[in-house]
Amino acid sequence: MDKNRYERATMSTSSATKHDAYLMALDAGTGSIRAVIFNLEGEQIAAGQAEWIHLAVPDVPGSMEFDLSKNWQLACQCIRQALHEAQIPASSIRAVAACSMREGIVLYNKAGEPIWACANVDARASREVSELKEIHDYEFEREVYECSGQTLALSAMPRLLWLAHHRPDIYRQAATVTMISDWLAYMLSGELAVDPSNAGTTGMLDLATRNWRPELLDMAGLRADMLSPVAETGTRLGSVTVKAAEASGLQAGTPVGMGGGDVQLGTLGLGVVRAGQTAVLGGTFWQQVVNLPKPVTDPEMNIRINPHVIPGMAQAESISFFTGLTMRWFRDAFCSEEKLLSQRLGVDTYSLLEDMAARVPVGSWGVTPIFSDAMHFKTWYHAAPSFINLSIDPERCNKQTLFRALEENAAIVSACNLDLIAEFSGVRAKSLVFAGGGSKGKLWCQILSDVTGIPVKVPVVKEATALGCAIAAGVAAGVYSTLAETGESLVRWEREYQPDAANHEIYLLQKSNWQAVYADQLGLVDRQLTTSMWKAPGL
After folding, report:
1. What whole-number distance in Å separates Cα of residue 401 and Cα of residue 399?
2. Which pLDDT value is given to residue 18?
3. C-alpha closest to that of 499 among 440, 539, 535, 452
4. Could you tell me which residue ranges the Carbohydrate kinase FGGY C-terminal domain spans (predicted)?
């Protein structure tokens, strides 16, 4: 594909007629696909959403295949639903772009037909991870990390090696590999390419050059002839084809822009586009993201490093596992009365639980939750879930105490991860942006500020990934000038929290205690006395 086709648009918003111009983002998450329509001021106008389920292959433990045929139908369904809800003609959509969960990959044959795909946490390749780790006297994974910022656990190479071993029929046919976001763009435009932010999570892309490193595939015994062209986020890939228009309801000829990885586009939508800026994204997983002034990796290999969607910039990203899922488990397992009461009162159950937890002293009477560990990317596993240091005094140990302890623990793990990033990068956050579902809780926001000891800003648009993707579409179509300028100009702030110095001191001790207790709990897993909450493939 001719790289000259990928030209960054430079027109300004003044060139667009704002009242009848809109942008569409396709947001392919782990559990659902969304088509979201925004006006040029960044306000969400309409959305279509459908859940999707990834397929476990019989007799293939850890497999999570992505149903290409069905999921394209769901994407088209969402596009039509969003257009219907917005009550606008398809001709009003100035451009469309796609973003997706990272790590998920799609393979195509020589005819350009998608032939196989897997979702982000497909873990079938545990044996291949172990085999690759043995290359170069057990130095191959470090070589991959220092080049790409990724370890082998969820990278593409073990999965490709698994196909070579177990599905050679598919591996032999494979002519091109992309990410899931790129597959959506391809289905719309017929153009195959990847962007650095998402392709960077394959472990096959060079952080410094933002291009493929074929030598890594050569060392792994894999073919390097399937690497597709690389185009930066916000470049124009092509236009909606007649075939895609008939399937989706979009107008043929609508510009299709290059999107990217969901987290990186989420930070764009939050205006986190300058070196040193920091965000905590609170969803099912919590990501702590720090913009680095230049690509640099962690000598201890604790933290993953990804290309940002902003050219030349990298992001240190740490992950807290199952934070949102843990809160949902606690609500559903122990808070049936509160769920009924919240329905009668017409309020959210989490809001009711936060009101109760606000009456619990800072530190939650010393209760220590054991769920996600801080991030250790090279040896990534967690202790068995539990609560430590409970009291049998019902006035001290009750639902509100445990709920507050969980919120405090999520903030403590985030603070530990930010400390790990600061240790190798020298970038220590002076404030942070808190977004995602977790940021809806006012108590949680204050706890995060108190634990980290820095101001916490909460945006009006908390689910910013789709907005960032729409910005990419707008830049590709010439509606906006640059990604960074547009991200900063469209973000609006709902509120800001200041840290309480006395509470911060309490939480410093709480953090130290938690680190010591968690280390002991990992020892129980090591001795096979308890079961890890999650363990990376190859461990």
Report:
1. 5
2. 56
3. 452
4. 309-477
Give the residue among 278, 128, 295, 294 at the shortest CA–CA distance from 205.
295
Strand partners, 46: 37
Decide: 291 and 367 in contact? Cβ < 8 Å.
no
Asked whether the whole model's pTM tops 0.85, one would answer yes
As given in the structure block, the two tokens for residue 133 are: 């780790």
- The 10s digit of each residue's pLDDT in 208-233 is 999 999 999 999 999 999 999 999 99
419: how many CB neighbours lie within 10 A of its CB?
14
130 Cβ contact list (under 8 Å, min separation 6): 538
Report residue 536 as tokens: 């990376």
- How many residues make up the chain in this entry? 539
Q: What is the 3-state secondary structure (H, E, C) of 63-113?
A: CCECCHHHHHHHHHHHHHHHHHHHCCCHHHEEEEEEEECCCCEEEECCCCC
Q: State phi, psi for 151 to the nearest 5 degrees.
A: -95, -175
CA dist 526 and 215 (Å) reads: 35
Closest CA to 280 of 380, 443, 148, 417: 417
pLDDT tens, position by position, 432-465: 999 999 999 999 999 999 999 999 999 998 879 9
Which residue's entry shows tokens 């782990």?
A: 30
Single-letter amino acid, residue 97: A
Contact (Cβ atoms closer than 8 angstroms) between residue 146 and residue 529: no
- The letter for the amino acid at 195 is D
